[in-house]
Amino acid sequence: MDPALEPYNNAPNPDKQALKRVGQIVRRRLAADPGAQKFPVEGAEIYGISDFLGPEECDRFIKIVDDNARPSTLYEHGQGSEFRTSYSGDVDRGDPFVKMIERRIDDCLGMTPAFGEAVQGQRYTAGQEFRAHNDWFWTKAKYWDGEVVRGGQRSWTAMIYLNDVEEGGTTDFVRLGLSIPPQRGVMLVWNNALPDGTPNIDTLHAGMPVIRGVKYVITKWYRTRRWA
Ligand SMILES: O=C(O)CCC(=O)C(=O)O
Ligand SMILES: [Fe+2]
């Protein structure tokens, strides 16, 4: 069996009702937002919002990412350190600029701010990538014991491209045949679950290798409950 399907088929889903609820809250919010464009794909809810950050805000965040960069950590290291080779870092949530942007993301999605994880910056230089993965947690993995008490399952992901990339670095939803090129200031938002609250295997996605240039993104993941 495709090992990627195993969690989908067999893992317990204690947050199913909460995933369904936040799915609906954000879906309604985005449907009412003329700036949010839904990608015409079957099988997952993915939206793009242009000019979510202005060029100066992007530059300011790029500097914050550079100042905080350290090798990415992963929940599961089984795949080896080449799995996610970008640099990532938590940013200072006390910084008023970071606060403002986090609030703007919360507001756009209509998500309870307390459900949001700290925004993370990521930098990929040429050759670096984030191989195909799902943002939701596999509830049969060891790390789940920690995550279940830290806000539970991940629901929506918001990711903002801080720059254009010369070549490569697309975000590919590999099961959907969707490849999204980085575009400065664009925010991608997707539901990691199906409308019924089941983690959605079809949200499998990769940050493809950067071929030329450097790629900067910030990511904010939302849980189903208060993140702690
Ligand atoms: O860099 C990308 O395009 C994808 C990043 C990603 O998947 C993540 O941060 O969860
Ligand atoms: Fe991801």
TrEMBL record:
Keywords: Dioxygenase, Iron, Metal-binding, Oxidoreductase, Vitamin C. Transmembrane segments: none annotated. GO terms for molecular function: oxidoreductase activity. Its cofactor is L-ascorbate. PROSITE patterns: FE2OG_OXY (PS51471). Residues 115-224 form the Fe2OG dioxygenase domain. It comes from the Bacteria. Its EC number is 1.14.11.-. InterPro entries: Oxoglu/Fe-dep_dioxygenase_dom, P4HA-like, Pro_4_hyd_alph, Pro_4_hyd_alph_FE2OG_OXY. This is 2OG-Fe(II) oxygenase.
